[in-house]
Amino acid sequence: MVEDNMPDKKTVLICCGTGCLANNSYEIYRELKKRVEAAGEDISVKPVLKTTGCNGLCEKGPVITILPEDIFYCKVKISDVDEIFEKTLLKGEIIERLLYLDIKTGKKVKSHKESEFFKRQKKIALRNIGQIDPANIEDYIQRGGYRALKKALFEMSPDEIINEVEKSGLRGRGGAGFPTGYKWKQAKKINSFPKYVICNGDEGDPGAFMDRSVMEGDPHSIIEGMIIGAYAVGAQKGFVYIRDEYALAVKNVSRAIKDAYGRGFLGENILGSGFNLDIEIVRGGGAFVCGESTALMASIEGRVGEPRVKYIRSTEKGLWGQPTVLNNVETWANVPVIVDRGAKWFSSIGTEKSKGTKVFSLVGKVNNTGLIEVPMGVTLREIIFDIGGGIPGGKKFKAVQTGGPSGGCIPESLLDLPVDFDSLDKAGSMMGSGGMIVMDESNCMVEVARYYLKFLSEESCGKCTPCREGIRRMLEILEDICAGKGREEDIKLLLELAETVREASLCGLGKTAPNPVLTTIKYFKDEYLAHIKEKRCPAGVCKELTSYRINQELCKRCGVCAKKCPAGAIFSKPKSPYVIDNNKCIVCGACREACRFNAIEVMGRREG
Ligand SMILES: Cc1cc2nc3c(=O)[nH]c(=O)nc-3n(C[C@H](O)[C@H](O)[C@H](O)COP(=O)(O)O)c2cc1C
Ligand code: SF4
Ligand code: SF4
Ligand code: FES
């Protein structure tokens, strides 16, 4: 497995992940197909056309890969189809315009694998995505899929499988990094049936799309992992919990389950082994807290999705009070590779306590946004500046937020931190499920903390008072600070509240909710002080503390700012630089974003 076998036959892989679909990639597929079919005898070797899951570079989409030459085209339009057919498919010529520009080297590359974005990645969980048609089980099998299942069922005992997973060092990819093999061992040793396995595909973090991409692009890898896990712990029923908004994930996982039944990988007497397993999909309603293990189980049971106290572990009494193994999408997708290639191989990748790779959705103020998979232990600097290609527009890096809404903001001084479960924890953040949001000098860190606390206060289920009331109280203080009404004692009060919320909340939501506040106070206290003492927002974000002015010397009179202004607040007299009417300005920042000459200056708040 983790095979990279390129077909000898000409194959065109057209990305039809959610990002590319939104930019008409399916129409491109249809047009190209029509063109190939209409060519008849004109074309000696007809290419095979396949739709695939997300290649990770959605921002450059729609993307197309042509094999075996491995030509990678980006931002393809329907109007490019004829040229791709005539030049590349018929004559083997490369269309320079459509090649990927590697920001790091400034050069166009023929194959995306030559770019810094891809070269530094290692794909295990994402091994097949972008290479196979997720709706075609044969594609998965051709790349080694279901080989691990056969090995598990016919060459290994359940205990041997659990030992292998334990030895591999695999830790759960859904947030807490709990050792997967140990969790399975606990569920296996309870002699109470039925037992259940669950795949957590809730993925409620704003900006995250790792699990969605795996469910959409390689659903069989999850199903194969779940069958192996179920066999190991003695479960005969599995659920894939997918958030309702993920329509394509639901469609592709449903299709994969149906095809797996059709090939005898699911159902009764799997492949003649005597082992039975049924898997079904449950659609989650979209509440962030339903990603928490016990809330998720309550939701599957048809109860309100509220967490419970975990003095009894779910491996002992989980779904309907029975032993249950719940793992994240990415965790399950790693399992077949571990069984196939062995624990020794897997544990040779990563750091001492964090083995293997981790998938991240790299977003925010970074040149190459997208889905990446890196060996544990690479530094934040490598991810942001080598893979991500640095910060756009020549701006300065300020912070990176890892771990989803209740993760923390890590400053520039810690950019050489290795990315693993323990180092991120130590820095006051966490791995979480893999959201990574890059921020530059134009982000206000007080406002960032306020944004996450607002999200968490709305998503708290309200069951316990410290979380329900504590987060709301912290949010009110942050809103005051952002509005210029902060008091000097507010920082101390925030720290005290954070401590109480962390200590006294029932589930992980409340326990980790203070992280954005604590890390921004720890690493960006000067920004809090500027808001509180000087009534100034240094980043020029908080509306009540900010006004803008156009620097008359830097303004080149291009008029771009005036075109972008939604309030009609920018005007100019003939042959003069542009000016902002502060009575009309709503401080949206659109002009500042748009100006290529950095002529929009941030000023303090306007009095009166
Ligand atoms: C508020 C909250 C939301 C969570 N959301 C998710 C989620 O969307 N997906 C996920 O896999 N784990 C989520 N988790 C973590 C799960 O509770 C659980 O630890 C995880 O799914 C276990 O799988 P793993 O061991 O493979 O990581 C969440 C936890 C909390 C506290
Ligand atoms: S900590 Fe918050 S989200 Fe968790 S149970 Fe308590 S109120 Fe609900
Ligand atoms: S900040 Fe927004 S409203 Fe104000 S001048 Fe600029 S674009 Fe117009
Ligand atoms: S959806 Fe096509 S690259 Fe992500």
Automatic annotation (TrEMBL):
Domain 4Fe-4S ferredoxin-type: 546-575, 576-605
TM ranges: none
SUPFAM superfamilies: 4Fe-4S ferredoxins, Nqo1 FMN-binding domain-like, Nqo1 middle domain-like, Nqo1C-terminal domain-like, Thioredoxin-like
Pfam families for the chain: 2Fe-2S_thioredx (PF01257), Complex1_51K (PF01512), Fer4 (PF00037), NADH_4Fe-4S (PF10589)
InterPro entries given in the database record: 4Fe4S_Fe-S-bd, NADH-UbQ_OxRdtase_51kDa_CS, Nuo51_FMN-bd, Nuo51_FMN-bd_sf, Nuop51_4Fe4S-bd, Nuop51_4Fe4S-bd_sf, Thioredoxin-like_sf
UniProt-listed Enzyme Commission number(s): 1.12.1.3
This protein's record includes keyword Metal-binding: yes
GO molecular function per UniProt: 4 iron, 4 sulfur cluster binding; FMN binding; hydrogen dehydrogenase (NADP+) activity; metal ion binding; NADH dehydrogenase (ubiquinone) activity
Keywords noted in UniProt: 4Fe-4S, Iron, Iron-sulfur, Metal-binding, Oxidoreductase
Keyword Metal-binding attached: yes
Source domain of life: Bacteria
Signal peptide: none
Similarity field: Belongs to the complex I 51 kDa subunit family.
Protein name: NADP-reducing hydrogenase subunit HndC
Lineage, highest ranks first: Bacteria, Bacillati, Bacillota, Clostridia, Thermosediminibacterales
